Predict the 3D structure of the following.
Amino acid sequence: MASNKTFTMIKPHAVADNNIGGIIAMIEAAGFRIVAMKKTQLTPALAGKFYEVHKERGFYAELCEMMSSGPIVPIILEKENAVADFRTLIGATNPENAAEGTIRKIYAKSLSENAIHGSDSDENAAIEGSFFFGVIEQY
Ligand code: RTP
Ligand code: MG
């Protein structure tokens, strides 16, 4: 059965630019319920662990540096068809290709600083949510 949860993080540049509220307003307006949320900061080592799947990619070091450069807001979200609907809401990885009205179209600065993360599968949503939140926070 498809999960009804996904996981997201508001990236450091969007937090630094005071865009937490604007981004969360778009997420709630799209019908997502906030299950768990906090503000925290990754170390480079923790960012490396979170993005371990990308460790062979050329952008891995830049990604880990960017994601540990300031506070982030990790969030677990709930909605029917959450993973796919959230990927639609955030838009393409490269904001130059992101559709009008998507979060990345509005808030991303570049391919690297693209405002927000969205899990790419139900399995990864569960793994990524559990990276930041304990069992009792996930209901
Ligand atoms: P995300 O995981 O953050 O939701 O993004 P995504 O699935 O759309 O993209 P993914 O391929 O998983 O890449 C993860 C993040 O790495 C940065 N990136 N930089 N410089 C580059 O070529 C490059 N490509 C990707 C972005 O911050 C991307 O969101
Ligand atoms: Mg990804």
